[in-house]
Amino acid sequence: MSEMLKITDLKVNYGMIQAIKGISFYVNEGEIVALIGANGAGKTTTLHTITGLVPAKSGSIEFEGKELTKIPAHKIVSMGMSHVPEGRRIFQELTVYDNLLMGAFTRKDKNELRDSIKTVYKHFPRLEERKNQIAGTLSGGEQQMLAMGRALMSKPRILLLDEPSMGLSPLYVSEIFHIIEEISKMGTTVLLVEQNAKKALSIANRAYVLETGNIALEGDAKELMQNDSVKKAYLGE
Fold it and tell me: 3-80+158-234, what's its fold?
């Protein structure tokens, strides 16, 4: 398995506060890797730093062998990385279809665009049913599907998901996680940041536990599910 994303000794500061204290981890091609941890552990900051939204203080972020820390955020998308931020951030006043088109701004080929829309509708049949609906009128779960569908429109090699289950009903949570597995099976690598540790570990290959800016534990996701300290702290057992 080749390493697609490699983070080495990453440090990130917010003002005087050291948010990320020198973490290292990697994501192999084709994997689902989960980052779990409590609120404020630094999970979202880590994703934001990888995608260029927050500057790294030091350390390295390599994507397919290219160093990302000096590349502007908007260029990172065209390199094959797509980020679904926390809180969905869709274009509320545009239709579902127009939102999807916005996700393909790096693509020029009209035929490819049609194929991508077809693929998104295959993953998310509900989006096809609602393609002419104004996005702001969708339910929370449908908006999350739209945010993920839009991210897939750029045909990413890796998809970074930030808290995809946040604020969703249990039914939608199961559906979203099922879709993440489907996306992975179709060949997209996934880095998943998730508060719902049980769900995340159930679909991930490997996982890292982040605690106040440090990686406290790492390993096979199924093994971490059996780990006593993980059970106590994150699985509510």
Answer: Rossmann fold (3.40.50)
